[in-house]
UniProtKB/TrEMBL annotation:
Residue spans of biased composition, Basic and acidic residues class: 70-87
Disordered: annotated span: 23-42, 47-87
Species name: Steinernema glaseri
Gene3D superfamilies hit by this protein: Spore Coat Polysaccharide Biosynthesis Protein SpsA, Chain A
Protein name, per record: Nucleotid_trans domain-containing protein
Domain of life: Eukaryota
Pfam family, one: DUF273
Amino acid sequence: MCSGNPPNYHRLIVACVVRADDGDESRQHSAPSAADRRPLLPAPSHQLVQDREARPCQHRGPGTLSQAYRSEEGLRGASGETEKHDHANIVDRDHYLKHIDTKKAFEERREKLDEHIHMMPAVAPSKRTIYPKRQEMGECKPLFGKVLVFVAYVESSMKTHYKVAQDTLHCYLKGTNYTTAFVDLDHDKRVKENCPHDQLFFKKHCAASVYLQDVDWMLVLDADTAVVNPNHCIEEWIDDRVDLVFYERFFNWEIASGNYLAKNTEFARTFLRKWADWQYIQPSNWNGADNGVLQLHILQTVLPDAVQEVKACDAIWHKGTDYDSYMAYVTCVKVMLGANRIWPGKIRIYRRAHGWVRDGFLTSDNFCDSDFMLHGWKLQAIETNGWNSPFRKMFNVSECGSAYLGWNYRPGYKITCEEVRKRLAAFEQSAGNTFPKKAQGLPYLTQPDIGNCYPKCDDLT
């Protein structure tokens, strides 16, 4: 682990939720119908259904370059069992399926959802509305409407982790017009009514789909995501050409699942609900849980006609036995998506280190003007376990709200963006040189392209 980093890079589920102000009469939303509240299962296929139980992947101990990912994923359990909570409202898969009136009705509903998410009319690329960069801690004007910051959490972990990260968030929010709500995944009434999932990572995305109905845009954050440079507005990363915004993890090119932006549209809400419901059909092997699901979910969503390509990546995914073989699946999805990073009306994926957040360990928590948030802070106090944070003392949130009051920086932690670029360039080269050999193969050389479907491979294109 890099020196100066907070230890124990587990990724506990946590998201920030921004609610619409109760007194805002200009934005009224009708209550969702019973049909809209019903959990939505992803469309199963002959290949996806086999050997799938509600059981996540197995994980091994930390290793060289990928140690942050492996230890972060360690929360899901070395034995392959995801941490579960015995809630009164938790149901098993059979009970869950009883929410569907009949198999026929469910199939009809599923087909309608797939038609909506996959068969949207083509949207011509339009010019993005560029939000002006925040200057001298000035006002963040609501150019894109009401923005909600959403953090979902489990009470037990919130008491032992995340105070430093969450204090930075609260300090930042006091100087903006955003609102923040914390959603207790075990006890929140709306989550209980709409999200029967018992695996926290998937339950988080269901909860996000529920609260997204209240606002125009929502920023979902992991609880260990800290604001390190408050001189930014969330809107700087909103792209109004799409409904969902993701970014790539720097050290392994994986599309990150913990932090994302979502617009209040039927497309975005459906995408999040289907993502959550993958809990019930995910592979039982080393699968990356919600991270792993997201890769294929995005590929299917933005390239619905790429049937053979999806099958190839899915086959590699099902063969995963460890981190290295899992990365072969991540590589497959990246190759199949190609150079494109934006699908108008659907999704944008920010290039590594260009989103609103990046892993802090990449630069030992040093930052520059371009940085906004750093991910991976899981401590209750600074000066703990040898970690020197960018701040010289703990936050007193009551001091925050005016310019940089309350932001007590340690000298030397803010550096030039050129220095950050050099460090990222060195890490980028190292990441490429040490990338798992199992993941370096080209999927179209290892998986059949026409062998299983000739002469009808293009019939669905």
